[in-house]
Amino acid sequence: MVHLLVIALFVAVLTPGPEYVAPMYERLGPIGASAMVLGALVAIWMPTWWMVAILGRRLARRGDPRSIARADLAVAAARVATVCVVAAGVLGAGWLDAVRAMLASLAGTTSGDLVALDELIAITPGLLGLAFGWWVAYPIDRMVREAVMLRDIDRGAGVPDILPRSRWVRQAVRHQLAVVVVPVATIVIWSELVELLLGGAESAGPGVDVGLMVPAVQLVGAAGVFVVMPVVMCRIWDTVPLDTGALRDMLMGLCERAGVRVRGIRVWRTNGTMINGAVIGLIGPLRYILLTDALLDRLESRELQAVMAHEVGHIRLRHMPWLLAAVLGTILLLASATDAAYQATVESVEHAAWMELVLVAVVLGAGLVVFGFVSRRFEWQADAYAAASLSLDEDGRPCERVMPQGADAMICALQRVADLNHVPTRRFSWRHGSIAHRQRRLYELPGNPCRRLPIDRTVGWIKACSGVALLLGVAAMVVSVVGQAS
Fold first, then answer.
1. At residue 352, does pLDDT exceed 60?
2. Cα–Cα distance between 317 and 374 in angstroms, integer?
3. Does residue 449 fall inside a structural domain?
4. What distance in Å separates the CA atoms of residue 435 and residue 438, rounded to the nearest whole number?
5. Position 98 in a domain
6. Which is nearest to 213 in space by CA: 197, 232, 230, 198?
7. Inter-residue contact 287 to 279 (CB < 8 Å)
8. pLDDT digits (tens, 9 = 90+) for 152-208
9. What digits encode the pLDDT tens for the residues 213-230?
10. Are 291 and 307 in contact (CB under 8 A)?
11. Residue 10 within any structural domain of the chain
12. CB of 240 within 8 A of CB of 186?
């Protein structure tokens, strides 16, 4: 959820256009708008901190597990409220205008609309609020980890060190916030530089339309960021190459059998705080599979193979580009449709402002719904792919139908990950659904043909609709840009 909230912060500061007017800002001024936003954030987090502290003491005295769920809910609600406050401050109280006014005063210029700096400063209180959530939740998380540590010691298992609060928060920021902030901020900087350098030019050469060139260069730069960002993220996150040996050979063998190209498998060092696997990168030469240290240490061989096969399935089935196509196609199509409604119904500047807010919320809300809907089904397909790829006969050859042992390996891996991450199997995730539901789907797989799994038909329709939506959305955007340029 944190990733989506960070994206929402960027959307909020990038939404207002030059014609947008914030009537409240004219009454508040920079100081008033700043005090309203910052004061509201303090009013959100101070009670949340107090509430979570009470729940922590209750957990320590009574051992009531409901305190953990309530603390998680309180922190999640405070994070959503944080994003809403910053968005309302930007779109209703002129918080971004206040930041620009203060930058102009400090720089001694007439405008504080600097390249991406004003937007980044405007979302900083929101990012600090999201990070403060980990600071608030640390005592309860530590108690849970200490309890798990005692259980593991009794079983004779190795245990990782418990990080101090400041280091734990820094690690969470590094792994949860930086993964979104760095690429999105890079794209924003690139887009504003292109607009600054090319937007005011009268001509870019014979036969070249500047009005069409600016968005084209911005789009190429954004694509370039997505291509090279995996290399950057491997540096931002604490990752190292997986040592050569039997484990690496086994995992790379899964990639080779699937015809999947990766640059390497890297160990994602989290001091044992995360049990996870991930794929980063859209193209083979710059694609990595990341497996956390705790995942490699705590899972059995067949469970580790299931997790790896799941990640390989995401690559083999091209889930990432199709997920982007589904979301972008939805947003572009709805943006074109709502723009027509906006032009037809706008009556005044103030009315235009409220209409803009409503339509932006509709478009982004639809994109969020599509993102969750498609992402969950891609997870189901990756689970099914893993079960099918691990269905082998006694000689190690692939079977034509899903075998019980293949499905069981993925079911056990999901259960193990849930247990080690202290996540209830029935807890719903917007991106992944619940682990219990995924396990139920896997229980139904044995006996199905490996090449015609039930989820494949559903995903096929999703990909077809996504492709059509993206083509129509891009066509509508090109028509709109050409119309504005002419």
1. no
2. 13
3. no
4. 5
5. yes
6. 198
7. yes
8. 666 555 566 677 888 888 888 888 888 888 888 888 888 878 777 776 555 555 445
9. 777 777 788 888 888 888
10. yes
11. yes
12. no
Give the per-residue pLDDT at 48.
92
Instruction: Give the number of domains in the chain.
Output: 1
Give long-range contacts, CB 8 A cutoff, 24+ apart: 70-75. Answer: 71/137, 71/140, 72/137, 74/48, 75/48, 75/133, 75/136, 75/137
- Pick the closest to residue 240 from 270, 274, 210, 211 (CA basis): 270
Which candidate, 143, 146, 130, places its Cα nearest to that of 48? 130
Question: pTM of the full predicted structure?
Answer: 0.79
Whether 437 is covered by a domain: the verdict is no
Residue 485 has pLDDT above 70, yes or no: no
Q: What mean pLDDT do residues 63-82 have?
A: 86
From CA 106, how far away is CA 459, in angstroms rounded? 53
Alpha carbon distance 98, 464 (integer Å): 45
Does pLDDT of 21 surpass 50?
A: no
Q: What are the φ and ψ backbone dihedral angles of 449, each rounded to 5 degrees? A: -60, 135
Quote the domain boundaries for residue 6. 1-156
Tokens of 125: 């209180």
Task: Give 417-431 as a DSSP string.
Answer: HHHHTT--TT---TT
pLDDT of residue 464: 94
Helix (H, G, I), strand (E, B) or coil at 292: strand
